[in-house]
């Protein structure tokens, strides 16, 4: 079962402090998932079924969404874009790299959705850049209000798994 494989690989226990200061006893480590080529492939294949039919570009959010969007692009044949939290300070100085997004229906891709704030910020950046964004995909949804926040701003969330789907799920997600 895919949920068990994801939990065995990516759910780790210990004391973890998140960027907002919240402390968890368990953490969803998306890098462990991304480092396992077969699991990443299988997750991307499963997530491909969640991609809306009218999607034109998949956009991964740094850093956790990048390996997922690359694998998902390979699974679906859709082009990928990559989003930084801030514009690059040198070279291209871009915040959005990869596929052209202007006027194209973009679907956001990330690893875990908690409050939804990061996805909403990214949706706004894409919208300002001229890309309609109405959908977001994630591997894991943690029930901390993200779905509601996104829906309030016209973005439907499509998770592969909810936290309750993971074996031993209490506190297992970042």
UniProtKB/TrEMBL annotation:
Pfam families the UniProt entry points to: Pribosyltran
Pathway: Pyrimidine metabolism; UMP biosynthesis via de novo pathway; UMP from orotate: step 1/2
SUPFAM superfamilies: PRTase-like (SSF53271)
InterPro entries: OPRT, PRTase-like, PRTase_dom
Taxonomic superkingdom: Bacteria
Start and end residues of each Phosphoribosyltransferase domain: 36-142
GO BP term, example: pyrimidine nucleobase biosynthetic process
Enzyme Commission numbers on file: 2.4.2.10
Binding-site list for orotate: 142
The keyword Glycosyltransferase belongs to this UniProt entry's keyword annotation: yes
Keyword set, alphabetical order: Glycosyltransferase, Magnesium, Pyrimidine biosynthesis, Transferase
Necessary cofactors: Mg(2+)
Keyword Lipid metabolism: no
GO molecular function (one): magnesium ion binding
Swiss-Prot/TrEMBL catalytic activity: orotidine 5'-phosphate + diphosphate = orotate + 5-phospho-alpha-D-ribose 1-diphosphate
Binding-site list for 5-phospho-alpha-D-ribose 1-diphosphate: 84, 88, 110-118
Enzyme class at the top of the EC tree: transferase
Gene3D superfamilies, alphabetized: 3.40.50.2020
Family stated for the protein in its record: Belongs to the purine/pyrimidine phosphoribosyltransferase family. PyrE subfamily.
PANTHER family given in the database record: OROTATE PHOSPHORIBOSYLTRANSFERASE, URIDINE 5'-MONOPHOSPHATE SYNTHASE
Protein function: Catalyzes the transfer of a ribosyl phosphate group from 5-phosphoribose 1-diphosphate to orotate, leading to the formation of orotidine monophosphate (OMP).
Subunit note: Homodimer.
Name recorded for this polypeptide: Orotate phosphoribosyltransferase
Record organism: Streptomyces gilvosporeus
Species classification: Bacteria, Bacillati, Actinomycetota, Actinomycetes, Kitasatosporales
Gene that this sequence comes from: pyrE
């Amino acid at each position: 079962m895919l949920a068990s494989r994801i939990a065995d690989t990516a759910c780790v226990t210990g004391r973890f402090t998140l960027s907002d200061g919240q402390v968890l006893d368990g953490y969803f480590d998306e890098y462990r998932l991304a480092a396992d080529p077969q699991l990443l492939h299988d997750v991307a294949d499963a997530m491909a079924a969640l991609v809306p039919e009218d999607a034109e570009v998949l956009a991964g959010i740094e850093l956790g969404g990048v390996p997922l969007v690359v694998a998902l692009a390979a699974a679906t044949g859709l082009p990928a874009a990559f989003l930084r939290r801030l514009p690059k300070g040198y070279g291209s100085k871009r915040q959005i790299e990869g596929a052209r997004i202007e006027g194209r229906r973009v679907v956001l891709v990330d690893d875990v959705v908690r409050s939804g704030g990061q996805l909403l910020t990214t949706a706004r950046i894409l919208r300002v850049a001229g890309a309609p964004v109405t959908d977001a995909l994630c591997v894991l949804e943690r029930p901390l209000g993200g779905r509601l926040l996104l829906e309030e701003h016209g973005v439907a969330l499509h998770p592969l798994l909810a936290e309750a789907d993971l074996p031993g799920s209490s506190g297992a997600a970042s």
